[in-house]
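Standup notes
- HV: blocked on the assembly model, inputs below
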Amino acid sequence: MNMTSRSRAEIAADQRPGTFRAEWFTIAACTAMVLLLLLAVVGKAEAATRGSGDLALVVERANGSLQVVETTGNTSLTRIEGLGDLSHASAVFSRDQRYAYVFGRDGGLTKVDVLEGRIVARVVQSGNSIGGAISQDGSLVAVSNYEPGGVKVFSADDLALVADIPATYGDGKRSKVIGLVDVPGQRFAFSLWDAGEIWLADFSAGSEPAITRFEDIGRNPYDALITPNGRYYIAGLFGEDGLALLDLWHPENGVQRILPGYGRGEQKLPVYKMPHLEGWAVAGNRAFVPAVGRHEVLVIDMNTWQEAGRITVAGQPVFVMGRPDGREVWVNFAFPNNDTVQVIDSESLNVVKQLQPGKGVLHMEFEPRGEEVWVSVRDLDELHVYDTATYERRSLLPAQKPSGIFMTSRAARIGL
Amino acid sequence: MMRWPVLATLSLCALTTLASGMPSSERRVELDYLLTQDCGSCHGLTMKGGLGPALTPESLAGKPAVYLQTTILHGRPGTAMPPWRGILTDAESLWLAERLLAGEVGR
């Protein structure tokens, strides 16, 4: 249609010599502009026209870089460098799944454009940090710090400081902060390693948070998680056998100790790597968590919050991750068993599969619907992708001392 | 007050051990890797600290190697520092302590 009408216009122009030049000029200018636009688009086509829902960031901890990978064809897209010390690092995502906020060991908070593979903004906000969270509405990014101990909250837009929450306790000492998660209602929950406390910071009224403190929750909480529905916040305790449970529907009821004394007074094994609580492995009404200093995974009945079983595994669990459908739970282990991954049947509580990806299995991340799982194998400098139905390795990608793997689908999940 | 003479004696013993049981060059590569990657999990890959304290030469200044060796071997009860005996020998832990004091790791 366009061609036809243009031809008619040209014919008309030919018949009226006075307007010929103007018409020709307009057409030439338009063509040139379209060509220029096309060139610009083609130059950026691959980055600018794809979605970001199947992307993931892999932390390469030795060099302070990130690898952007896609999980449809399992390929590497690009590497982003210059993120500082990523010996311990994690990431959360903006609600549009385009930007990642990466929390580095050296206190660095870096906003990364995952699609364009570049750093958008970066601040070094403390001397030493451990993790972070993004608020329910996506406007605030909170970082939990070891040194100086506390939480700092930033604008997700430009990383401008919004609030500073020193984790003071006793006579003005500051505690290291761990287990920071987002809580529905524009709140954050976190735990104080040295103080043995859980704090709730409520930002629903603006940038001045209302803080609720829960004291005496147990010795040395080492990490915490929140259930996928945002109701229960649970901190694992390193300094004693047990976990601390906060019902966020009823914070007025305070913190309840669950599974107290699960070690039955036996001598704990030395802990060579602190376990993580993440990805809340839930199957039916049962939850699976690592037992600290023991070669066991603990099973919790979520109706009664009593122990519902324990599963003997190959070493001290670090990550206990539920496959998204809840049918299986995958576990990796601390040194010196960190070459192994075990798969637990969530119904029978049996170990049904053991994999040996290689030394230094640091992290596992399921694809959003769980058909594949990505595993970082630090000492081999490799990422492995396993089919969760057959346990066959489907892909292998090189990576430099890979640790955490973070899929953009986390953007839509409470507490991740 | 008795601590220093005891430590000095231990030091001497340790030196003797070191002379007799210096890790092989192959093992030294493994130990360096362990120090960076596994100790680094808590103390940071650059040894500037994490859940565990910083282990830079500046932060360790004044602490004898044998004191650090003892901490490595026996851990710090009541803290997150585990004992490494059974995984590391006396000589290996002393060698690691000296690497830390000399600032030869985490760079």
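- HV (later): unblocked. Residues 1-38 of chain A form one domain. Confidence is low (pLDDT under 50) at residues 1-15 of chain A.
- Next: hand off to the docking folks.
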